[in-house]
């Protein structure tokens, strides 16, 4: 069975360039939106997944799902701080950081409103147990003083967060003495200060969590059992990395929105492709009859018109993927449903995501070309030649 040469479809697309451009633009727009919104969800998930150190353990109040809702008293803190199995530094101090999370409201740099930002109060070992975090400007805050260090991303998005600036939060003014970077992790959405100063400024008589470093994997199991079996503590222990992996559900609403928008827009794009192919069938009725007379079977005509629709959608998908690429790595922020604060992260466009965008485009082309191709293949020869 002879097949219709591909050059026939290419010439036909070129002749109908106006409808071709409309279809390509529609499919390209759908694919660009799909890739960009999904890259938001991927970037947010990646931010949480790469947060934390697998050697660290996080202690929360039993039943709490987040640090912000957990409460650990000073008495409970004292029962845990010197447990055997916790690693110590060169000076013999346990690698143990009592911490507390509070929310503050900061104005944006562009003076267009503001947002909630997380302030993490931490102990003197807070930076030591987070080796991925590096001070890039200034110095670390000093215990007993209303000083703080700010992530560079926060400093680039909010007012009064540069070194030497100060802002009011709680019962006093906080002076920014340093900027840090945290390898694009969730820590880059926070401001850090001394835990006891934060508790005093915000009227808290408790801590929210404890971050500690056990000596080894074996001692981690013993420390976990010791803490969780102590009924006086009423605490639960989990790996720091596991805690942040659980927070990836914040990406759920974004992923749902992306899928919903893509589904709605894909219907319109599929109809655009279908309309283009129906117009092509109507304009080429005599050509279809001629192809039949020349010996081309209905199946060849069907596959030729379907292929033409797929080509149009494939070109649109490719342009949509290319249009989305400039957003890769662009920093942005969104509302975190767990912390109720802004989370800083980046668009993350991966080859896998671009591949899914192309598959999405080709699927729209197939759906949009099925019925018009069937119509072309079923046209009677005599009716087509008389058109």
Describe this structure in words.
The protein has 2 domains: 6-49 and 250-386, no CATH class; 63-233, no CATH class. A hairpin with a 6-residue loop joins strand 2 (96-107) and strand 3 (114-122). It has 387 residues and is of the alpha+beta class. The two termini are 26 Å apart. Strands 1, 2, 3, 4, 5, 6, 7, 8, 9 and 10 form a 10-stranded mixed sheet that branches. The protein is built from 12 helices and 12 strands. Helices cover 48% and strands 19% of the residues.
Short synopsis of the structure:
This protein has helices at 6-15, 17-49, 74-81, 152-157, 195-201, 217-229, 240-246, 252-283, 285-293, 298-324, 351-377, 381-386, and strands at 57-61, 96-107, 114-122, 134-138, 147-151, 166-169, 172-181, 190-194, 209-212, 235-239, 331-335, 342-346.
Give the helices and strands, then pairings:
Elements: H1 6-15, H2 17-49, E1 57-61, H3 74-81, E2 96-107, E3 114-122, E4 134-138, E5 147-151, H4 152-157, E6 166-169, E7 172-181, E8 190-194, H5 195-201, E9 209-212, H6 217-229, E10 235-239, H7 240-246, H8 252-283, H9 285-293, H10 298-324, E11 331-335, E12 342-346, H11 351-377, H12 381-386
Parallel strand pairs: 3-8, 5-7
Antiparallel strand pairs: 1-9, 1-10, 2-3, 2-9, 4-7, 5-8, 6-7, 11-12
Summarize the main sheet. Answer: 10 strands, mixed
Q: Tell me the domain tally.
A: 2
How far the N terminus sits from the C terminus, by CA atoms, comes to: 26 Å
Q: Shape from CA axes? A: elongated
List the helices and strands in order: HHEHEEEEHEEEHEHEHHHHEEHH
Output the structural class.
alpha+beta
User: Tally of extended strands?
Assistant: 12
Stretches where pLDDT falls below 50 for ≥5 residues? none
Number of helices: 12
Query: Helical residue percent?
Result: 40-55%
Which whole number gives the mean pLDDT? 86
Rg value: 30 Å
The fraction of residues in strands falls at: 15-25%
